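Protein Record: Sequence and Backbone Structure Tokens
======================================================

Structure line: whole-number tokens from a learned vocabulary of local backbone shapes, matched to residues.

Purpose: to set a sequence beside its fold so the mapping can be learned.

___
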Amino acid sequence: LGGIADISAMLFLSLTFEFSFFFTIFVKTFSKLKFMKRYIATILALVTSATLSAQQVYRTEFSVFDLREAALRNDHSKTERHIRFAPKTIEAVGKVEVVGQTVNMPTAWSDYNVYLHIQNTIKAYDLVVNEQLVASVEDSYTPADFLLSPYLRQGDNEILLLLRRSQSIELHNGSKSNLVEQFRGSYLFAQHRKHIFDYDARIVESGKTLNLELDIAVRNDFNFEEVVQVGYDIYSPENKLIDYAVREFPVAGRTIDTLRIRTSLGEESRFLWSDKNPKLYRLTLYTKRDGKPREYISFRLGAGTSTFADGKLLRNGKAITVKSARYNARTTYNEALAEIKALKATGVNTLLPDNPQPEWFYDICDSLGVYVIERASINPTENGSNR
């Protein structure tokens, strides 16, 4: 116990030193900027007390649509509560760049949770909203979501990113970026306080039958219990409606509960997904309020299993000959689609990204019949080459 106490004391001193060092640099840098002075007192209180409550949300990457057709096309042009986040440079001092965007929050958004989705930042960043430090992120490659509602107010809101060198830069030295536009794919969107928070969907084979295993996490941010209506429908690769339903269940106030759905999709073994047969089902989720469908979430998924046995990778029980290529989708959807098609034409059936990719990258790979060996954003090098 004495040893643990000593270690705890050292960790505390280390953390105190790190926060003190960070704040010293912050003050030296930003005290030079008159418009930033009003933020220093607030951030001082947060940093020196080491009580930062990061609002990063860990869940499946998705956004919501007002219309089913828009969800199918991934078109946000008619989504009411969806704002592109494209911050502009305000000032650059030393090695820190301040970028920001003013976002107006209408009164109609008061019953909604507002999330910020950030990707393609190039650098590590600190997120500041209305003079409050929300989160500090060292990983510039992995897309991230943040719950901003506790920091927002009606009217104009200042959202700033302080772009800086990562404190864990050695962990990312081996990563490559083909970025063509900073903050591409970043946006704000809002969900009603009763909303789909996350989901997990699988199509599994049981004998000759395919079964859908669907778990939908529903969040109720009101203070009291609410009955939530959640709907789903699933179409076959031949665009045939297989199953649909609307379920309702009570969710206690300020909690997340999970709706579990298990249903048979019939005997469709010819629809098992592989690189030779990239058949995909279309699953759409939505909530209902006042008798009307709201907040559509649509995605595609394949059926079957991937296993590893006797030194071989198997898909649906059959061995796969892997031909891989290192690839990162740091451009646009259409450019990545063309590039991956070209790789597939050369016989490549497996991609090795350096870090987590945008969600549309995986949809491209699924549609073309390409396997992905995922990697966290930890890619150090030794003597200038990948280990």
